[in-house]
């Protein structure tokens, strides 16, 4: 099958061809006809399989076939969990719609509202947005969502993980009842399927990979190593193997900063990307990483969610995630769209339970490798585990010391203005609900950058992560 077989216009096919594509991926081949027929859609696919084009191409086709009733009202809304993913999706809209008379805008926090307000008020057909900042614009009456014809939830599983359900409900309440709704996700949990039943009408279902499957093109391995030697082992692996582009995952923002600094001191050009970084810093770091000016990008889970890099060869789990499904998302950054990749995990004694949970999810054991000089010291014992997490594990919002033991001061991450697109990587297992007064006090005036409001996870009330 070729893109020419899918019923797309000559203008769209021309743009697709200019990107070097002529054959659709499985998710594109299955999803595009369904969307063009006007059906609601639930689509599950591994990351890197081309699902963004799976909805942008048919949406552009549908809009180009319909006269715009009013340029003052957007016709398509795409919600994403992170800033990086929003920027990526809107870039795809502009790339594939370059020969169409359609306008788009990307809306996310961490930057000033004024340019976004100007774009919205000038009239756009397609909005790609993170939930919090979109609701800010709604509150300022900068955008009217009553004309939305197509509503798309991208990375729906991560939307729920990050606590965006209340924001999603607020947004959907502003949309017309009659519309086409598309839900795309790397995986679909039972919770996601329940959510879909609330918003989708007789949806067609497309699933090109089994639930929680890892990319077939990714070679996975584990190195058991003492925690204190992880940094040195990572340096050795990078230098001995000549790795030139490595995405490294840590659990916390503090850990990402510390590791990037240590790698830099070891002569490996590195940068950290997480939710406490300004949007400008995150954009620059990602651009430098893609252009190989940086060899290592150290990221937290949510910060890396929107990272889409062609032919990324290596992903390293410097620390295993607390949630096994996040392992699948992490290693899905490599081995994308038919290319091969390598995923390496550095596992200390404290993380053995997390590794077992991951292998249970994968229904397989991950190959264990060793490097001479980095064997595990058998005298080191695991720290206590509470609710599946180490009691002394550093967290973005502070540490929980064992009962009766004073919390070590040096383990506390630096405190910034109250953290409130993505992305920090620490999923706080027990987020605290801020009072209404505190939330209002934290809200910046219209037109400000809103950077002090960035959080990594919703709190059961208004999510601040994407503001």
What do you see in this structure?
By secondary structure, the protein is α/β, with parallel strands linked by helices. The chain folds into two domains: 3-207, Rossmann fold (3-Layer(aba) Sandwich), CATH 3.40.50.300; 218-390, 3-Layer(aba) Sandwich (Rossmann fold), CATH 3.40.50. Helix content is 33%, strand content 14%. The protein contains 15 helices and 16 strands. The chain has helices at residues 10-18, 26-36, 51-65, 83-96, 114-122, 131-139, 156-161, 165-172, 190-199, 230-241, 253-265, 279-290, 324-331, 352-362, 436-442; strands at 41-44, 76-79, 104-107, 126-129, 150-153, 180-185, 204-207, 218-224, 246-249, 270-273, 296-299, 314-317, 341-347, 367-369, 385-386, 389-390. It has a seven-stranded parallel beta sheet with strand order 3-4-2-5-6-1-7, with helices on both faces. The chain has a seven-stranded parallel beta sheet with strand order 10-11-9-12-13-8-14, with helices on both faces. Strands 15-16 form a two-stranded antiparallel sheet. Helix 13 links the parallel strand 12 (314-317) and strand 13 (341-347). Helix 3 (51-65) crosses helix 4 (83-96).
């Amino acid at each position: 099958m070729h893109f020419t077989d899918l019923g797309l216009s000559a203008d769209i096919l021309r743009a697709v061809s200019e990107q070097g594509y002529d054959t659709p991926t499985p998710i594109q081949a299955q999803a595009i006809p369904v969307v063009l027929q006007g059906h609601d859609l639930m689509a599950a696919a591994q990351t890197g399989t081309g699902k963004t084009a799976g909805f942008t191409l048919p949406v552009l086709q549908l809009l180009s076939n319909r006269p715009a009733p009013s340029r003052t009202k957007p016709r398509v809304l795409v919600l994403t969990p992170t800033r990086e993913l929003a920027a990526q999706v809107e870039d795809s809209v502009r790339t594939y719609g370059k020969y169409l008379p359609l306008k788009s805008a990307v809306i996310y926090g961490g930057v000033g509202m004024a340019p976004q307000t100007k774009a919205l008020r000038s009239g756009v057909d397609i909005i790609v947005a993170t939930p919090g900042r979109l609701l800010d614009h709604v509150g300022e009456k900068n955008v009217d969502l009553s004309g939305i014809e197509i509503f798309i939830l991208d990375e729906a599983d991560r939307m729920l993980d990050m606590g965006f359900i209340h924001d999603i409900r607020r947004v959907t309440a502003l949309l017309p009842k009659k519309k086409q709704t598309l839900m795309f996700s790397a995986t679909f949990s039972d919770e996601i399927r329940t959510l879909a039943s609330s918003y989708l009408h007789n949806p067609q279902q497309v699933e090109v990979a089994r639930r929680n499957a890892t990319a077939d093109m990714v070679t996975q391995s584990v190195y058991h190593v003492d925690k204190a030697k992880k940094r040195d082992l990572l340096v050795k692996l990078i230098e001995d193997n000549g790795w030139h582009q490595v995405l490294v995952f840590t659990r916390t923002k503090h850990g990402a900063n510390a590791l990037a600094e240590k790698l830099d001191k070891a002569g490996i050009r590195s940068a950290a990307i997480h939710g406490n970084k300004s949007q400008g810093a995150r954009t620059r770091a990602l651009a430098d990483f893609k252009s190989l000016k940086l060899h290592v990008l150290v990221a937290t889970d949510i910060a890396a969610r929107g990272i889409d890099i062609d032919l990324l060869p290596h992903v390293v789990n410097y620390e295993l995630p607390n949630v096994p499904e996040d392992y699948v998302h992490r290693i899905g950054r490599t081995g994308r769209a038919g290319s091969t990749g390598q995923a390496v995990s550095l596992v200390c004694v404290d993380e053995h339970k997390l590794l077992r949970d991951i292998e249970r999810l994968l229904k397989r054991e991950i190959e264990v490798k060793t490097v001479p000089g980095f064997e595990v010291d058998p005298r080191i014992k695991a720290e206590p585990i509470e609710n599946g997490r180490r009691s002394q594990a550093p967290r973005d919002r502070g540490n929980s010391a064992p009962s009766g033991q004073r919390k070590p001061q040096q383990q506390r991450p630096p405190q910034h203005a109250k953290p409130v697109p993505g992305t920090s990587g620490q999923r706080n297992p027990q987020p605290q609900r801020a009072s209404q007064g505190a939330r209002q006090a934290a809200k910046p005036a219209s037109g400000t950058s809103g950077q002090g409001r960035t959080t990594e996870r919703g709190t059961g009330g208004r999510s601040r992560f994407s503001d």
